[in-house]
Amino acid sequence: MQNYHNYKVDLSNCDTEPIHLIGRVQPHGFMLILNKQTLEVEQLSTNIGEFLQADPVVLPGKKLNAIAFKEEYATLEERIRLQLDTGTKVELIELQGKPFFAFLHESQGNLVLECEPYMPVQHGQQILDLTGGYTRFLEKLDQQDSLVAQAQQTTQFVQQVLDYDQVMLYRFDEDWHGEVIAETAKPGVPTYLHHHFPASDIPAQARALLLQKPVRQIADVSAAAVDITPYLNPTTGQPSNIIRSELRNPSEIHLQYLQNMGVQATLSVSIIVNEKLWGIIACQHKSALLTNYWRRQLCLNVAQAFANGVLAHEEQRDLKQLEELRVQEVQLMNQLMESRDLHAELQKQQSAILSLSEATGVALLLDGKCYTYGFTPSEQSLRSLAQWLAEHVGSSSFHTRQLSNIYPAATDMQEQASGLLALEISKLNQEYLLYFKPEISETRIWAGKPDKEVEEKPGRIHPRKSFARWVQVIKGKSLPWSLNELEVAQTFVKDLTAVVLRNQKEHLTELNRKLSQTSEMLRAKNRRLEDFTHIITHNLRSPLGNMQGLIDLYNDDPSAETGVQVMHLMDNMVQNMATTLDDLGLILESELSTELEDQEVYLPDLVERELQNLQPIILQTDAKVEVDLQVKHITAPKVYLESIAHNLISNALKYRSPERQPLILVKSWQEQEGVCISVQDNGLGINLKRFGHKIFKVYNTFHQNKDAKGLGLYLTKVQAEALGGGISVDSIPGEGTTFKVCLKV
Predict the structure, then answer these.
(1) Lowest CB count within 10 Å: 203, 321, 552, 601, which one?
(2) Domain extent at residue 378
(3) What region holds the Histidine kinase domain (predicted)?
């Protein structure tokens, strides 16, 4: 009979073999599967009669007291209940006056009770020897300065404890291939030191078993296995799950594998680091050998001690190098944080970014741009890689020594990018910091060519028979990533993300400020357009009403004399309306101008042209004009500057005092907010207490002057505000006025 009903195993299906449902046990002990509540026997191994006076045919359905003396059963039941409460798994018990090691665990709601004959320690000296040897082992383990030296110390002590022919310490790599990194063997035993074994030798479900059951013994590879009866559990109707069993029979394909190696007994002890399977202490013997529980437990303690050493080595850092890298990272971040142009600074700091690791190339994909330094793939390849990372990698930090194994497109860029350290900035935007290491060639020694072999006649796939040295050159791999590299790179990308977020916040704040400013300008412009509507209504409705009155007058007295008078008055009204429409058009043009072209204006030339245009009135009034332009160049719409200069200078001449020679000073200077232009005169002045609130409103005049319209200051205010500035006035009646325009240019 095989391990399963109607199920055959070979290498074609061993990776899916349900080893937890094996229906057989090794013969050096017996198994009982009990109802948890009643302790009735539901299944048992058929060899129970070899250890106790019990009939495996009639025992199913009976309580456990059927195989124990009365006084034994009371103690046994108490211990079983206590074990379930405390989690204790191993007990020394008596059945029918015989001592046994009892192993108990729960499975699918049932209890699995296994017993193997008790092997006492022969004498007190043996206990002292084992205890003293273990203490010395721990001392020597701490004295070793490398992981390999600790591994060798471990195999030597385990071989001393077990007296097996060969003890190997076997380490898994990231692909679950194994390498023997330490070995202690008796003379004449073939060595497997530094040999590799393919992942298929220990498939996934077997590795899962090694996590759940860290100590696993096969006492006799050639021993006939014992059936569990009935094969199907009467309560569940399924084979019982005995994955945590001490006695569970091994996979038949594994037994054949061991026979091909010439091995008759094995003991494997899992090395578990941070709850992950790191490796195995694999013990092999050329003849059958049953190891008692005491020694098995001691080997488990040894494996745990070695695992602690592994953890210490993996956490060990080159502290000096780490501190230097941290200083470099801080200096780099200071440069990036102080710069107001992150993209330009990143371009300058590419060499510093690369120096944070031992990589030979670095790429940064950020804000749609791609920065590279050193030996990297093409930009197109980098963007494709970023897309793959965003779609397939869930963690924010990812690294590998063999990128092409998981990302086939990397096969074409192994020379630059066999190793990848990828740190996510924004998965949504496919923004990453990528470090690359180049391909190195690695010579790997296999324990036999790791291929499946087919028997010629039955065509069955079976484990390889040859374990002779077989050399293979592995390509597409890089040097590993150190803990220092991972930590500093992760710190850098976090700090960089913080700078990006800061800049984005500042950018949004500036946009909001400009939006608020634009909204206020639009509100002001809307208010002025409303005023404009009222102006049109007022300035056109009144003349139209007067014209209608003249028509009514002519209708009442259609004489020639009345007609001439009406036509004369009509002509004046039409001329006034035309002038009003011209003024309103000028106002509307200023209000609706939202964007004029900026030019570099040379202010002295502009002022000189305005003075030339006003030369007749300057000569007529004997006005003296002084110019003091500290700022000579202004970048702004030229037409606005011409209008502002014309309105302010012409107003200074227009509202001169008849009692003195007009004196006018035109100035420009730099202030914190921008450039200021002022025109100061010694003219009539304005009563600001009386008229200050409406001085810049349209059609408001404050002096009796036939040329005054009340448009110039209004237009100047509109144009100054359009340039992000404003206008102010300082005046004393009878002494003069100064108008100051400040522009954010």
Answers:
(1) 552
(2) 339-439
(3) 535-745
